[in-house]
Amino acid sequence: MAEAIVWTPTDLLTGLALPFVPDPNLPPVPRHSGEVPPEVADVNHANHPRLDPLLAADIDSITPSAGPATRECRGQFVLRPTHERYHREFYGPHLPTTTVGRFFMCALAASGYVPPEALDFSRPATRIVTLTHMQRERLRTSGEIKMVSGEIVRRFLLEFAFSQGGENIKPATINELILLSLNKKNPAKQARLAELLLDGLVEPAIAGQLRDTYRYGKKNSLIRPGLPRSVLTFVRQELAGGEQVTRQAVGRIVKQCVAFKFSGGLAAA
Predict the structure, then answer these.
(1) What are phi and psi of 82, to 5 degrees?
(2) Is the model's pTM score more than 0.90?
(3) Are 79 and 28 within 8 A, CB to CB?
(4) Which residues contact 180 (CB under 8 A, 6 or more apart)?
(5) Per-residue pLDDT tens for 107-158?
(6) 178 or 191, which is more confident?
(7) Other C-beta atoms within 10 Å of 36: how many?
(8) What CA–CA distance (Å, rounded) separates 235 from 228?
(9) For residues 183 and 180, what is the distance between their CA atoms, to the nearest angstrom?
(10) Which residue has the higher pLDDT, 239 or 160?
(11) Tens-digit pLDDT profile for residues 214-266
Protein backbone atom coordinates (compact mmCIF):
# COMPACT_ATOMS: atom_id res chain seq x y z
CA MET A 1 0.00 0.00 0.00
CA ALA A 2 1.40 3.39 -1.01
CA GLU A 3 2.36 5.78 1.77
CA ALA A 4 0.11 8.79 2.22
CA ILE A 5 1.56 12.12 1.11
CA VAL A 6 2.60 14.30 4.04
CA TRP A 7 2.28 17.88 2.89
CA THR A 8 4.57 20.57 4.25
CA PRO A 9 2.62 22.68 6.78
CA THR A 10 1.94 26.23 5.59
CA ASP A 11 1.12 29.58 7.13
CA LEU A 12 -2.64 30.02 7.36
CA LEU A 13 -2.53 33.71 6.41
CA THR A 14 -0.21 33.61 3.39
CA GLY A 15 0.12 29.99 2.27
CA LEU A 16 3.91 30.22 2.60
CA ALA A 17 5.60 27.00 3.71
CA LEU A 18 6.60 27.12 7.35
CA PRO A 19 10.32 27.81 7.79
CA PHE A 20 12.70 25.74 9.92
CA VAL A 21 13.35 26.91 13.46
CA PRO A 22 16.79 28.56 13.29
CA ASP A 23 19.53 26.20 14.44
CA PRO A 24 22.19 27.49 16.88
CA ASN A 25 24.76 25.27 15.13
CA LEU A 26 24.17 26.77 11.70
CA PRO A 27 27.27 28.54 10.32
CA PRO A 28 26.92 32.19 9.23
CA VAL A 29 25.20 32.72 5.90
CA PRO A 30 27.97 32.67 3.27
CA ARG A 31 28.55 35.80 1.24
CA HIS A 32 30.33 33.91 -1.53
CA SER A 33 29.92 30.50 -3.13
CA GLY A 34 32.04 27.79 -1.54
CA GLU A 35 32.47 29.42 1.86
CA VAL A 36 30.37 26.69 3.48
CA PRO A 37 30.70 23.12 2.13
CA PRO A 38 27.33 21.92 0.74
CA GLU A 39 27.53 18.79 2.88
CA VAL A 40 27.47 21.07 5.95
CA ALA A 41 24.68 23.50 5.02
CA ASP A 42 22.80 24.57 1.90
CA VAL A 43 19.58 26.21 0.72
CA ASN A 44 16.22 24.47 0.97
CA HIS A 45 13.67 25.72 -1.57
CA ALA A 46 10.40 26.31 0.24
CA ASN A 47 8.34 25.40 -2.83
CA HIS A 48 8.96 21.94 -4.27
CA PRO A 49 9.17 19.27 -5.67
CA ARG A 50 11.29 20.88 -8.37
CA LEU A 51 9.62 18.98 -11.24
CA ASP A 52 6.05 19.85 -10.23
CA PRO A 53 4.32 21.28 -13.35
CA LEU A 54 3.12 24.24 -11.28
CA LEU A 55 6.75 25.34 -10.92
CA ALA A 56 7.56 25.10 -14.63
CA ALA A 57 7.69 27.92 -17.16
CA ASP A 58 4.66 28.32 -19.40
CA ILE A 59 5.80 29.87 -22.67
CA ASP A 60 2.22 30.22 -23.90
CA SER A 61 1.19 32.40 -20.96
CA ILE A 62 1.38 36.19 -20.58
CA THR A 63 3.17 35.39 -17.30
CA PRO A 64 5.64 32.65 -18.39
CA SER A 65 7.85 33.19 -15.33
CA ALA A 66 5.08 32.47 -12.81
CA GLY A 67 6.12 28.87 -12.09
CA PRO A 68 9.89 29.43 -11.87
CA ALA A 69 9.31 32.54 -9.72
CA THR A 70 7.19 30.51 -7.30
CA ARG A 71 10.05 28.02 -7.06
CA GLU A 72 12.74 30.70 -6.61
CA CYS A 73 10.87 33.17 -4.39
CA ARG A 74 11.96 31.62 -1.10
CA GLY A 75 14.78 29.52 0.25
CA GLN A 76 16.28 28.98 3.68
CA PHE A 77 19.91 28.31 4.51
CA VAL A 78 19.83 25.21 6.75
CA LEU A 79 22.06 22.40 7.95
CA ARG A 80 22.31 19.69 5.31
CA PRO A 81 21.31 16.82 7.65
CA THR A 82 18.16 18.75 8.61
CA HIS A 83 17.50 19.49 4.94
CA GLU A 84 17.68 15.78 4.12
CA ARG A 85 15.47 14.85 7.06
CA TYR A 86 12.88 17.39 5.97
CA HIS A 87 12.66 15.86 2.48
CA ARG A 88 12.31 12.38 3.93
CA GLU A 89 9.34 13.53 6.00
CA PHE A 90 7.49 15.97 3.72
CA TYR A 91 6.43 15.94 0.09
CA GLY A 92 6.18 19.72 -0.21
CA PRO A 93 3.58 22.44 0.34
CA HIS A 94 0.33 22.90 -1.51
CA LEU A 95 1.31 25.27 -4.32
CA PRO A 96 -0.82 28.15 -5.58
CA THR A 97 -2.62 27.15 -8.77
CA THR A 98 -3.60 30.59 -10.04
CA THR A 99 -1.43 33.41 -11.34
CA VAL A 100 -2.93 35.75 -8.75
CA GLY A 101 -2.03 33.26 -6.00
CA ARG A 102 1.53 33.03 -7.29
CA PHE A 103 1.86 36.80 -7.40
CA PHE A 104 0.56 37.03 -3.83
CA MET A 105 3.06 34.41 -2.65
CA CYS A 106 6.02 35.91 -4.51
CA ALA A 107 5.28 39.44 -3.30
CA LEU A 108 4.99 38.31 0.33
CA ALA A 109 8.15 36.22 0.02
CA ALA A 110 9.94 39.22 -1.45
CA SER A 111 8.85 41.28 1.54
CA GLY A 112 10.69 38.85 3.82
CA TYR A 113 7.48 37.79 5.55
CA VAL A 114 8.24 35.24 8.29
CA PRO A 115 5.29 33.16 9.57
CA PRO A 116 4.84 33.14 13.35
CA GLU A 117 5.21 29.32 13.36
CA ALA A 118 8.02 27.05 12.19
CA LEU A 119 9.10 23.41 11.92
CA ASP A 120 11.19 22.21 14.86
CA PHE A 121 13.60 19.35 14.07
CA SER A 122 15.38 19.35 17.44
CA ARG A 123 13.50 16.27 18.67
CA PRO A 124 12.98 12.81 17.18
CA ALA A 125 9.44 13.80 16.11
CA THR A 126 9.15 16.97 14.02
CA ARG A 127 6.68 19.45 15.46
CA ILE A 128 5.20 22.84 14.72
CA VAL A 129 6.15 25.49 17.26
CA THR A 130 5.59 29.20 17.71
CA LEU A 131 8.76 31.16 17.04
CA THR A 132 10.09 33.28 19.85
CA HIS A 133 10.63 36.98 19.19
CA MET A 134 14.39 36.44 18.93
CA GLN A 135 14.01 33.52 16.52
CA ARG A 136 11.67 35.49 14.29
CA GLU A 137 13.98 38.50 14.32
CA ARG A 138 16.87 36.26 13.35
CA LEU A 139 14.96 34.87 10.38
CA ARG A 140 13.85 38.36 9.34
CA THR A 141 17.31 39.91 9.45
CA SER A 142 20.07 37.27 9.17
CA GLY A 143 19.71 36.41 5.49
CA GLU A 144 18.95 32.77 6.29
CA ILE A 145 15.60 33.25 4.54
CA LYS A 146 15.96 34.87 1.15
CA MET A 147 14.80 34.91 -2.45
CA VAL A 148 16.84 32.32 -4.31
CA SER A 149 16.62 34.28 -7.57
CA GLY A 150 15.51 37.87 -7.26
CA GLU A 151 15.80 38.36 -11.02
CA ILE A 152 13.28 35.62 -11.84
CA VAL A 153 10.86 36.90 -9.20
CA ARG A 154 11.23 40.49 -10.41
CA ARG A 155 10.55 39.34 -13.97
CA PHE A 156 7.33 37.63 -12.93
CA LEU A 157 6.17 40.64 -10.91
CA LEU A 158 6.64 42.74 -14.02
CA GLU A 159 4.79 40.22 -16.20
CA PHE A 160 1.93 40.08 -13.73
CA ALA A 161 1.72 43.84 -13.27
CA PHE A 162 1.43 44.22 -17.04
CA SER A 163 -1.14 41.44 -17.35
CA GLN A 164 -3.32 43.14 -14.73
CA GLY A 165 -2.77 46.77 -15.58
CA GLY A 166 -2.01 46.63 -19.29
CA GLU A 167 -5.58 47.49 -20.23
CA ASN A 168 -5.18 50.78 -18.34
CA ILE A 169 -2.34 51.87 -20.62
CA LYS A 170 -3.59 53.95 -23.51
CA PRO A 171 -1.64 53.70 -26.79
CA ALA A 172 -1.57 57.50 -26.98
CA THR A 173 0.15 57.70 -23.61
CA ILE A 174 2.74 55.13 -24.66
CA ASN A 175 3.33 56.99 -27.93
CA GLU A 176 3.83 60.24 -26.03
CA LEU A 177 6.32 58.57 -23.69
CA ILE A 178 8.25 57.10 -26.63
CA LEU A 179 8.40 60.49 -28.37
CA LEU A 180 9.61 62.16 -25.18
CA SER A 181 12.24 59.45 -24.79
CA LEU A 182 13.46 59.98 -28.34
CA ASN A 183 13.65 63.76 -28.47
CA LYS A 184 14.79 64.21 -24.82
CA LYS A 185 13.36 67.73 -24.81
CA ASN A 186 11.24 67.41 -21.68
CA PRO A 187 12.85 64.94 -19.21
CA ALA A 188 10.70 66.13 -16.31
CA LYS A 189 7.46 65.40 -18.17
CA GLN A 190 8.90 62.07 -19.35
CA ALA A 191 9.63 61.08 -15.74
CA ARG A 192 6.16 62.10 -14.53
CA LEU A 193 4.53 60.15 -17.36
CA ALA A 194 6.62 57.05 -16.62
CA GLU A 195 5.66 57.19 -12.94
CA LEU A 196 1.98 57.55 -13.87
CA LEU A 197 2.16 54.54 -16.17
CA LEU A 198 3.96 52.45 -13.56
CA ASP A 199 1.36 53.20 -10.91
CA GLY A 200 -1.34 52.30 -13.43
CA LEU A 201 0.30 48.90 -13.81
CA VAL A 202 0.89 48.21 -10.13
CA GLU A 203 -2.39 49.42 -8.60
CA PRO A 204 -4.62 46.66 -10.10
CA ALA A 205 -2.06 44.03 -9.15
CA ILE A 206 -1.95 44.89 -5.44
CA ALA A 207 -5.64 45.40 -4.79
CA GLY A 208 -7.32 43.39 -2.05
CA GLN A 209 -5.63 40.66 -0.06
CA LEU A 210 -2.01 41.59 -0.78
CA ARG A 211 -2.51 45.14 0.44
CA ASP A 212 -4.21 43.93 3.62
CA THR A 213 -1.67 41.18 4.31
CA TYR A 214 1.28 43.51 3.75
CA ARG A 215 -0.23 46.02 6.17
CA TYR A 216 -0.79 43.23 8.74
CA GLY A 217 2.78 41.97 8.32
CA LYS A 218 4.19 45.48 8.70
CA LYS A 219 2.14 46.17 11.83
CA ASN A 220 3.08 42.87 13.48
CA SER A 221 6.79 42.86 12.53
CA LEU A 222 6.43 39.81 10.27
CA ILE A 223 8.14 41.32 7.23
CA ARG A 224 11.66 42.56 6.65
CA PRO A 225 12.59 45.67 8.67
CA GLY A 226 12.93 48.95 6.83
CA LEU A 227 10.38 48.30 4.08
CA PRO A 228 8.10 51.17 3.02
CA ARG A 229 4.72 51.53 4.67
CA SER A 230 2.90 51.39 1.34
CA VAL A 231 2.69 48.11 -0.57
CA LEU A 232 2.48 50.18 -3.78
CA THR A 233 5.90 51.66 -3.00
CA PHE A 234 7.23 48.21 -2.06
CA VAL A 235 6.12 46.54 -5.31
CA ARG A 236 7.53 49.44 -7.34
CA GLN A 237 10.80 48.95 -5.48
CA GLU A 238 10.81 45.21 -6.24
CA LEU A 239 10.17 45.91 -9.90
CA ALA A 240 13.28 48.08 -9.81
CA GLY A 241 15.27 45.07 -8.66
CA GLY A 242 15.17 45.96 -4.97
CA GLU A 243 16.87 49.28 -5.67
CA GLN A 244 15.67 52.68 -4.62
CA VAL A 245 12.95 53.65 -7.08
CA THR A 246 14.70 56.48 -8.87
CA ARG A 247 13.27 58.12 -11.95
CA GLN A 248 15.83 56.21 -14.01
CA ALA A 249 14.57 52.94 -12.50
CA VAL A 250 10.95 53.86 -13.22
CA GLY A 251 11.86 54.70 -16.80
CA ARG A 252 13.60 51.34 -17.19
CA ILE A 253 10.59 49.42 -15.89
CA VAL A 254 8.15 51.25 -18.13
CA LYS A 255 10.47 50.71 -21.10
CA GLN A 256 10.25 46.96 -20.43
CA CYS A 257 6.47 47.19 -20.23
CA VAL A 258 6.34 49.04 -23.55
CA ALA A 259 8.56 46.38 -25.11
CA PHE A 260 6.22 43.75 -23.70
CA LYS A 261 3.20 45.41 -25.26
CA PHE A 262 4.72 45.59 -28.74
CA SER A 263 6.65 42.30 -28.77
CA GLY A 264 4.23 39.99 -26.98
CA GLY A 265 6.66 39.10 -24.23
CA LEU A 266 9.47 40.26 -21.98
CA ALA A 267 12.14 38.27 -23.81
CA ALA A 268 12.67 41.18 -26.17
CA ALA A 269 12.71 43.80 -23.40
Answers:
(1) -70, -40
(2) no
(3) no
(4) 186, 187, 189, 190, 193
(5) 888 888 999 999 999 999 999 999 999 999 999 888 899 889 888 888 888 8
(6) 191
(7) 17
(8) 10
(9) 5
(10) 160
(11) 889 989 888 888 888 888 888 877 876 666 666 666 666 666 666 655 555 44
Polymer length of the chain: 269
